[in-house]
Amino acid sequence: MHRLPTPTSNSIVCLFMTDHPSMTMSIYGRFPPLAALLALCLCSSALQLQALLTHPLQVNALQAIRRSLNDPVNNLKNWGKGDPCTSNWTGVVCFNTTGKDGFLHIQQLLLLNKNLSGTLSPKLGQLSFLEILDFMWNKISGTIPKELGNLKSLVLLLLNGNQLVGPLPEELGYLPKLDRLQIDENQISGPIPESFGNLRKIQHFHMNNNSISGQIPHALSRLPLLVHFLLDNNNLSGYLPPELYQLPQLQILQLDNNNFTGTIPDSYGNMSRLIKLSLRNCSLQGPIPDLSRISNLSYVDLSWNHLNGSIPTNKPSDNITTINLSNNDISGLIPANFSGLPHLQKLSLDHNALSGSVPSDIWRNRTFNATEKLLLDFQQNMLSNISGSLEPPTNVTISLRGNPVCSVANQPKITQFCGIQNGSEEILASSTIIPTYCHSQSCPDGYEYVPESPVPCFCAAPLRIGYRLKSPAFSNFIPYEDKFKVILASNLGINPYQLSIVSFIWERGPRLRLYFKLFPKYGNHSNKFNESEIHRIEGLFAEWKAGVGGIFGPYEFLNFILLSPYEEDVDLHISKSGLSKGAVAGIVLAAIAGAMTLSAIISIFTAKQYMKKYHMTLRKQSASKISIKIDGVKSFTFDEMMQATNNFSISSQVGQGGYGKVYKGVLADGTVVAIKRALESSLQGEREFFTEIELLSRLHHRNLVSLVGYCDDEIEQMLVYEFMPNGTLRDHLSGNDVKKPLSFAMRLQIALGSAKGILYLHAEADPPIFHRDIKASNILLDSRLTAKVADFGLSRLAPVPDVEGTVPGHVSTVVKGTPVNLAYQTGMMLSIIDGRMGSYPSECVAKFATLALKCCQDEPESRPAMTGVVRELENIWRMMPDTDIASSESMVSDERKRASSSPSSLLSSSLKNAYWSSDVSSSNLVSGVIPTITPRTCKMLPSDQKQAIPKIKFPFCVHLVSWEKENVSSEALEAARIACNKYMVKFAGKDSFHLRVRVHPFHVLRINKMLSCAGADRLQTGMRGAFGKPQGTCARVDIGQVLLSVRCKETNGNNAQEALRRAKFKFPGRQKIIVSRKWGFTKFSRTDYVVWRSENRILPDGVNAKLLGCHGPLARRQPGRAFLSATA
Fold this sequence. Notes:
By secondary structure, this protein is of the alpha/beta class. InterPro entries: Kinase-like_dom_sf, Leu-rich_rpt, Leu-rich_rpt_typical-subtyp, LRR_dom_sf, LRR_N_plant-typ, Prot_kinase_dom, Protein_kinase_ATP_BS, Ribosomal_uL16.
């Protein structure tokens, strides 16, 4: 333990200056350079002291972690006393991690089995040097904070044995050094993130005993170092990924008790290093794959499935110990390939349809020693005889109960195998090894005789260890006990006689729990371990360096118990910082030299810093005088922006322009945003900046990039926008092979969307805005390739236009196309047409090129107005063939899948309908007349051009149904709707489902409809309650009444059920989730719907459908068609 030096007079002066800011500011204001130099000289002792302190940011993080935890037994009583590293806070390990900043950094946080509760603080993400995070075997609840994804040095993440809930954060998939992920025995739900395929250093995936759902991502087959893959006892579904055989180092694949479908892939027979394959109770079907090519295979458990066919006849590996094929539908004979297996311990073929004889070669061609046992379980089959010898060795236990052979009266020797056998219980029962005691003398309290000591009756004080093998590849431990002791003792750096296994017991899984003792070495002039040796041994267990591996599989460190005489001398709750005296001296000398150099440098730049701080003070004073309310945008601090962009790292930078650099950031709520950070030359005045923010906050259009928030803090100005995952239009037109070439239909859609965005700026914005810099790099594309105009916020405000959008001439002559058709200068519309757009309708391209040339005329009067541009582009779009539109839909779907991090499939809605359903028609945008809201099928088109509703195929439907009579409030309904919608948008996509609220309390239905109209934000004024929602209203629902319904594709069925499961917690009482047999929201079954749709008898009717009758004259009947009347 290191003690802090007593503060000297210099450090006292530093403290005085810190505690008297008014006096310090007075000196600083009059003589800034001198004051800075004086402060550095007086604080030299403080700099020396700082070199032995933990980084302040990490100290604050530990304090926040402590506040989020409950410590009923006061294990963390020394947290808050002194410095975490130098005062040895419980579980905090630092070692020699002083970096260039001169501070100590926390490397390990070991809080195993401390009886802690509470939650995990997001501040854990600030321990940037952390390598081991261990909260095992506590009672911690809440979710796993996504901020753990900031721990880029993390090697071990150990959270098993707690009460954690919620989904796995996607950010965990970006930990480049993670070796072990243990979250087993919690209540984690949701799918496995696709990002976990990026964990290139991971060796151990332990996620068993949770509620993880969805499919196993195919991306996990790309993990080159994965050794143990444990996902048993979850809610996984779908097919087993055949690609898992590509895992080159995989030794254990344990997926028991899940809900898979399909067969066991034949490719699993190519897993060359596999030791254990356990797929028990997984609802698998089909034949048993041939696993004979796996030379190291020791354990196979395929029981409690629906496997059929016969048992493969190829001989399995000589290393095999356990084969369990019970409770399947296997038929045929028991093959002779089970004979001569030297290590076989258990062969379970019970509860199948096997026939024929039991081959006695299984035990006849085998030599047993005293510790080896063999259990043969053939119960409940159709076996008729035993071939060969009927007198197996005493080591062999055979069970034939429930077979026809047991009913044969003239074979008395067989009846001994037809009763209830206890062989399996013997193998799985606990075993206790009682050491031999010396009775000639007794040991002192706390000391014991070392059972296998080379010197008889050697008394020593043991260390007591709790240890568990999580997935052993054997059924009987005794034959492997000596091997286990030799390997473990070698890893611990002790002799095998120092390790004594006191007891072991088999647990469910099966898992093997062991309790053993470690004794000090004889001949060290001491009969107990010293303190450093105890910490060394505990560190090997806690850092997962005491594993045995191979057939023993992964282990769990359960406890490390110190009794007398250690409990008074050694405190395992204290973790040493590891700083030697030489290291301390070196740090102090380096700090003194650094202080002298730093004082010389800072004295030169103090004047400049003083001016900056002076301007900052004036700026903050000015800001306090500005009172402005900005609705719809959020104000961020500079610290929030730093955390969102990982301290504005180069890896987060996605672009740079005249205004400044653009970063990709992730906000605290997980929202991905684009952050524009202004250069010093681009900074505006406080009032001008807020005026622009207020203007941008009023602009809302689907083809404009939305403003999320802003930052005006510490002489920084930043704008926070929604993030566009598909980049710019220039990226897709530049010929870069990384981006898929856009079809002409897609390019036309982008042009139309850009035109509508510009028209909105000209005609709808108040005041109007002229962009002045429209180019392909300023047209951004979202996940659905929807065009969004960017950089309009930094443009000059336009004079108020007249009806046609024209402005005074001096503005129009500055930039060609301003403001009539600013979006379509040379290089914009013409650049859309090139040789990479594939096939295209010539008539549409010709009209598009004609329009582009009109937009490039020199005279403003010769160029079309933006209203005309939009109208002409809409006319060209209506001329497009349906096949081209379908291909553009496919492209959008592909882009959306690449941009999305969710493993679920996404459904793109009709592009053609999407662009016809803009807020209002272009002709009414500048007419001054309030437009009439029309259905999506009309959109101001003439009656002869009205389009049919597109047939969106959402066949899968799931309902949340009330299961008791209850009152449902409007607030509960809204909360449930938000929860369901949020989950579906995140994991399925906003256009891949429909959500209906089926219960509507008084006024809720009317107001919800109103909120969906254009201009609803203005119509809400004067409504009672917040945001137009009435308070306190409720509806009485009956048993079986549907509350919420979601329809989607089959691929998103699991997502829909999980979304409604989360929504269920917003209601009182009991509810059930029921999967409908109907087609979507219709009243027709899925089978009937498909048949009737093939007969053209289904007519879309909103969210429902109408069934046309079969009446009509026989003369009108067509082959394969229903009778349809002329009126229908």
